[in-house]
Design goal:
The protein is α/β, with parallel strands linked by helices and about 350 residues long. The protein is about 35% helix and about 20% strand. It is built from 12 helices and 14 strands. The chain has helices at about 10-20, 60-65, 75-85, 105-115, 115-120, 150-155, 165-180, 225-240, 260-270, 285-295, 315-325, 325-340; strands spanning about 5, 25-30, 70, 90-95, 130-135, 160, 185-190, 195-200, 210-215, 220-225, 245-250, 250-255, 270-275, 305. The strands form 3 sheets. Strands 3-2-4-5-7-6-12 form a 7-stranded mixed β-sheet, with helices on both faces. A 5-stranded mixed β-sheet has the order 9-11-10-13-14, sandwiched between helices. Strands 1-8 form a two-stranded antiparallel sheet. Strand 6 (about 160), helix 7 (about 165-180) and strand 7 (about 185-190) form a beta-alpha-beta unit. The longest helix is centred in the N-terminal third of the chain and has 15 residues, at about 10-20. It is globular.
Length: about 350
């Protein structure tokens, strides 16, 4: 397949475009994805910005306003409408501007989208994708910066995806749109302009399969979404010190490829999980407990979690930078773990 450099946000746009071309049942709905109700009143206004980060730009021009739909500022309403549309056989893709706003439609997601297949004994499915934006580092304050992967991974009936690069974003979004179950697809705002080699043709990456981003045998580092890139940067530094870190990107958090993580731990004997979210009941704590249950005998030292702080994300730039785990902290944790030194948790 022919590949070229593509940004994370353009890879998502391409996945949406290709799936909308391939399947007339796919439609997109969200706030300001089609330019607002008054767009047609302005001469020459043929396109919308495409949401707050421009991810869906150009789609309304190509597919029209019947398939790229501006919603009211009412997440509960249009998420509920999407559940009904999916129940009726369509394949809606709902865009929630920020993951922080998913809470306004949590009842629809928790008690309806996630449960209808079970309620009807498996004879019905809800092929719904909810795309949303997550993560800190954008100076957007606590109401627009949370990493909420663990909340939705806790809910049976939902699939949760959080890609770390453009290649994975395109392939996983295509799989999500084709999937018969509801999928929460989380896009990190600080990854939108990062580039990767991405094939032009459509391709699907299986949901529930993690990926080894760097092979090593000294220590296993599991990065959660953007923290994969932090882990890779740290691994480059560690290699100069003779420490060969294996970096794993789960990509999918429900289902989670815990077998891949355990296989790596059985090889290296050490596990560090780097997760931007708060430490309590996080993806990091979930992975830690599962590895203890499945691969405890392989551990040469305690599992460590390097996470955000148990506070709301600060607005102050220096405090927000301190909140997010850094490359230097990953290096410090890894070297201390291998040396058997005590680590005082930052949280």
């Amino acid at each position: 397949m022919t590949s070229r450099l593509l940004t994370y946000k353009d890879a998502i746009n391409e996945a949406l475009r290709q799936e909308m071309k391939a399947d007339s049942r796919v439609f997109l709905i969200g706030e300001d994805v089609a330019g607002g109700a008054g767009r047609d009143e302005f001469p020459g206004a043929t396109d919308a910005w495409g949401g707050p980060f421009g991810v869906t730009k150009g789609l309304v021009t190509e597919f029209g306003r019947e398939r790229v739909i501006d919603s009211l500022l009412a997440e509960t309403g249009f998420v509920g409408a999407c559940i009904g549309a999916a129940f009726a056989g369509l394949r809606p893709v709902a865009e929630i501007m920020y993951a922080d706003f998913l809470g306004t439609s949590f009842d629809q997601i928790l008690n309806h989208a996630a449960k209808l297949r079970f309620t009807y004994g498996g004879i019905s499915s809800i092929p719904l994708v909810i795309r949303t934006v997550t993560g800190a580092g954008f100076r957007a304050a606590s109401e627009h910066s949370q990493m909420l992967i663990s909340i939705y991974s806790h809910v049976p009936g939902l699939k949760v995806i959080a890609p770390s690069n453009a290649f994975d974003a395109k392939g996983l979004l295509i799989s999500a749109i084709r999937d018969p179950d509801p999928v929460i697809f989380m896009e990190h705002k600080r990854l939108y302009m990062r580039e990767s080699m991405v094939p032009e043709a459509p391709y699907a990456i299986p949901i529930g399969k993690g990926d080894i981003k760097r092979i090593g045998n000294s220590i296993t580092i599991v990065g959660v979404q953007k923290m994969v890139n932090t882990a890779l940067d740290a691994a480059n530094i560690l290699e100069k010190e003779g420490i060969h870190a294996e970096v794993i990107d789960p990509r999918s958090y429900s289902p989670l490829d815990i077998e891949l993580i355990c296989e790596s731990v059985e090889k290296t004997g050490f596990l560090l999980i780097v997760d931007e979210s708060h430490p309590r009941c996080s993806i990091a704590s979930d992975i830690s407990s599962q590895v203890v249950d499945r691969a405890f005998a392989s551990l040469k030292g305690p599992i460590k979690m390097l996470t955000g702080l148990h506070t709301p994300v600060p607005y102050s730039p220096p405090l927000e930078d301190f909140f997010i785990p850094s490359v230097n902290e990953v290096v410090r944790y890894c070297t201390s773990m291998i040396k058997g030194e005590n680590i005082v948790n930052r949280y």
